[in-house]
Design a protein that fits this description.
This protein is α/β, with parallel strands linked by helices. The protein is 36% helix and 25% strand. It is built from 19 helices and 27 strands. Bound molecules: 2-deoxy-2-amino glucitol-6-phosphate.
Length: 616
């Protein structure tokens, strides 16, 4: 994780670079720092805490200062507690070199020892500091950052995107290995960052660095790209990004999370666009995805979903969709678990669906790459265009747009849509006249209208949040398609409200969690109208019999069955059972949002988290 920014070109206001860094804060925010050339001196300013604190400290001393060479960093700590010293940039003993790093240098201990024996003086507890000292060491032999970085990458192991500057040489080098780096280019000026939105304020012309790329700019502002894996200089295309900078603004909402929840009708529409046809009741997949499925459909007998966190919950939902909509056997695994189990299976029989909003999650990417190496059939579902998952795999991307709130909301909904489309397509290949499919395609095409209407009035959810915000424990229960929704709802509450929430399939409650039930642990019970409504009613009564408090999420068909047995209820519109997860989940997103906001918590940047987890 961590966000890195670098700049080299004509003089620029250093505060502008800090503003750009702010857009990377979702990647980590426990400390922040900046280093820049100021009249030949290397100035370093860094502190524990967020970028706003850096900006205040910076403006207190250097307001309006410009520089031709700058690097900046926002940190999510891996090695060394968040404090001023462990904050990046890290400098060398001569105080002429500064480095910012995203990733982990796995062999930093042995390198550090070696360098200490050579007389280097380390001041931080981080793995990253070895980079500045290694560069210093190799600069004794080579007098440019390019050759130095070729030596550095031979020494270090792990994942790294780092940007280093030398004040004396007036050079900058950016190196990408397993962590993303993008270069923005305008009028012979270069801005380097961990993602595209943080570059947009400067330019829409970008180069996406590939694994192993070293991007070097000399004193005259001439650049070259060299790939250290294939050991040769290469040219990367300059691409044009059509996104607007407003995607990274709150547009009047108090938090990005609320803005992103409200964007969900559009996200659904966009993800369906040109992929669903309500006249012919057909699904049209992107060419490469369709070709892969068409080619393999008679060979495969199962679908395995792999992902982490919220994306894993989408995969778990996919498992239920595949069971119910196709004749394939489904499974879903946490990517971090699947990575290290012995895959003693016939890979030709499996279609892997790998889901990742960021497309950069290390746990997910590493297992996908390993499966690709073994020749597996893989479809990626990334949201971020240009991410590693997007570029390295056949991808069926969601179209949620950039998600800034650390808690995933609209991207989860988009993932559900994408997974449904894949399952509907697979199902239609074998069973063209299936009425369930036809109904579902029709309903899916209109679900954004229902969501839009539902989002117009969320006062009841706000009232429930006010009433229950001070409870310290919650149980979330749901059956079948509602079980992944319960897991996701509990995750949202944990992530942004710091409230303990456990989720179980409703039928499992009596096998243990029932012991937790008392008047201090409310249950959020998901009870839409479907075949299981009376089973759900029995479970609700079991909770009531033990003096449990129940908040039920119901729809306008199940409300009358449930309402007399629960303490509070929220009524949602009744929709096709396969689409119920979308609405129920949005209600839980809102509940978690309001609880966190009422508690005065940092909704968009909850403690300890980062949006893109690029370490294992
Ligand atoms: C979601 O709210 C979380 N921040 C987290 O669980 C996230 O879903 C997980 O880290 C996976 O991220 P990805 O989708 O980018 O791979």
């Amino acid at each position: 994780m961590c966000g890195v920014v670098g700049y080299k070109g004509k003089n620029i206001k250093v505060a502008d670079i800090i503003e750009s860094l702010k857009l990377l804060e979702y990647r980590g925010y426990d400390s922040a720092g900046i280093a820049f050339n100021y009249n030949g001196d290397l100035v370093v300013q860094k502190n524990e805490g967020k970028i706003d604190k850096l900006l205040i400290n910076f403006n207190g001393k250097y307001e309006d200062i410009s520089s031709n060479i700058v690097i900046a960093h926002t940190r999510w700590a891996t090695h060394g507690v968040p404090n001023d010293i462990n904050a990046h940039p890290h400098i060398d003993c001569t105080k002429k070199i500064a480095v910012v790093h995203n990733g982990i240098i796995e062999n930093y201990k042995e390198i550090k020892e070696e360098l200490i024996n050579k007389g280097h003086n380390f001041i931080s507890d981080t793995d990253s500091e070895v980079l500045s000292h290694l560069i210093e060491e190799f600069l004794n032999k080579y007098n440019n950052l390019f050759e130095v970085s070729l030596e550095v990458v031979k020494k270090i192991k792990g994942a790294f995107a780092f940007v280093a500057i030398s004040n004396d040489l007036e050079e900058l080098v950016a190196v990408r290995y397993e962590s993303p780096l993008i270069i923005g280019i305008y009028d012979n000026n270069y801005i380097i960052a961990s993602d595209i939105p943080s570059i947009l304020r400067f330019t829409k012309k970008i180069i996406v660095l590939e694994n192993g790329d070293i991007f070097f700019i000399n004193k005259k502002n001439e650049y070259k790209i060299y790939n250290f894996i294939i050991d040769k200089e290469i040219k990367r295309p300059i691409e044009f990004v059509s996104w607007d900078i407003s995607i990274a603004e709150k547009s009047g909402y108090k938090h990005f999370m609320l803005k992103e929840i409200m964007e969900q009708p559009k996200v659904i529409k966009d993800t369906l666009l040109e992929r669903i046809n309500i006249d012919s009741n057909t699904i049209t997949l992107d060419d490469k995805v369709k070709n892969l499925i068409d080619l393999k459909i008679n060979d495969i007998n199962s679908i395995v979903y792999l992902a982490c966190g919220t994306s894993y919950h989408a995969g778990l939902l996919g498992r239920y969709y595949t069971w119910e909509l196709t004749d394939l056997n489904p499974d879903a695994f946490y990517a971090s678990e699947y990575r290290y189990i012995n895959k003693n299976v016939n890979l030709d029989k499996i279609l892997y669906i790998v889901i990742s909003q960021s497309g950069e999650t290390a746990d997910t990417l590493f297992v996908a790459r390993e499966l690709k190496r073994l020749g597996a059939n893989i479809i990626g579902i990334p949201n971020v265009i240009g991410s590693s998952l997007y570029r390295e795999f056949i991808s069926f991307n969601t179209r949620a747009g950039i998600e800034i709130g650390v808690a995933a909301t609209k991207t989860f909904t988009a993932q559900i849509i994408a997974i449904l489309l894949l399952n509907l397509y697979i199902s239609s290949l074998k069973n063209k006249d299936n009425l369930i499919l036809k109904d579902l395609i029709q309903d899916l095409a209109h679900i954004h209208i229902v969501v839009d209407k539902f989002l117009e009035d969320y006062i009841k959810i706000q009232e429930i949040a006010i009433k229950y915000k001070d409870y310290e424990h919650f149980l979330y229960l749901g059956r079948n398609l509602m079980y992944p929704v319960a897991l996701e709802g509990a995750l949202k509450l944990k992530e942004i409200s710091y409230i303990h929430a456990e989720a179980y399939p409703s039928g499992e409650m009596k096998h243990g969690p029932i012991a937790l039930i008392d008047s201090k642990m409310p249950t959020m019970y998901l009870a839409p109208y479907n075949d299981l409504i009376y089973k759900n009613l029995s479970n609700i009564q079991e909770i009531k019999a033990r003096k449990g408090i129940i908040i039920a999420l119901v729809d306008n068909k199940s409300v009358d069955i449930v309402k007399d047995y629960v303490d509070d209820f929220i009524v949602l519109p009744y929709v096709n059972k396969f689409l119920q997860p979308i609405l129920f989940n949005i209600a839980l997103q809102l509940f978690a949002y309001f609880v966190a906001d009422l508690k005065g918590l940092d909704v968009d940047q909850p403690r300890n988290l980062a949006k893109s987890v690029t370490v294992e």
